[in-house]
Design brief:
3 domains; Dna Ligase, domain 1; alpha+beta; 18 strands; eight-stranded mixed sheet; 24% helix; 7 helices
Length: 342
Amino acid sequence: MNSNEEENKKAKKFQIKYFLIPVCIVIITFIGYNIYNKKKNKWIVEEIKMNGINDEVSSGLAIISKWEKRTINNQYSTIKYDNNNYYTCNTTTQDDKIKEKLGEVVASGYDEYTKNTYTKNAEIYEIKGLARQACIAIKFEEDSTYYVYINLYYKPETLGQFIEDLQLKEIATFEKVYYKDPQEHNEKNKYYNDVEFVNVDNNVIWEILFSDVYLENIYNDNYNDKYGNTIARISVKVPLIENTNVSISLTEEGYLTTNILRTGKTFYIGKEKVKEFVNYILKNYQGHQTVYVYEDKDEEQEENSDILMYDKETNTVTIVTPNSTKKESTQNYTLPYNPTVE
């Protein structure tokens, strides 16, 4: 091989070598871009527009019904039995679910609009399979329906007792799972996106989160903050004893809390169990992120009298005047207050 051929060969190698540099840069950039976008767009995003009083109702406020429009169990929403107050949960049960009669009571009901108090005779029954300390059935005079009432202050000692007393494995269904996706890791400026997952295997939820039936119920109203930040929440459907929003929450510190029967129950399942469940959800299901877009619109509302609305979070009753954004807080009720809402 002469010197010219060697020079030509070296020139070709040089050209190929430096031609590949920009090609590699493009490939690496493309791969990096797709990895970034895969991470950035891992959720399916849906926008929901919010505006006006109807949105306020759906996001926390509920209209208190007029007395004559209430069902009898909502007229007489509280029943006293065995030194406990039981509250209607707007569900009923069948005759074959009734175990035995526990006693009789004179029920009392209050009309927030007219300030009148009413009374009604009723009978108290035990429900088959459910602990009477947690819930009972009520049948009013001249009415054949058995209405289910729950004890807000029922406190099981262990997770196993809680499951057994309410027959949760038989009557409860886990629905949507909500994951709080952290957006900022600076503790001073931390916020989350709510991501929704559907059709999660109920058997896996029972296996991961409820396997240790000996866990102690450690809930205390005065120490909610010590349980840590909620990282995931599971909506629960318990048709027999609940007709309201019920959920199970998991915290980063390893706690499982629930508002089944509307008051708190808390069990320490451990950080590893919480991580195991969250990782299972993220790995096996597609997330949907809902983004709320608030719009300022001047929509005409029907002329009407003032209505009373109940805020579940603040436990207050508020006057809302149609055609006006003005709201005046009228009453503060001591928990637990259970008004009849539409």
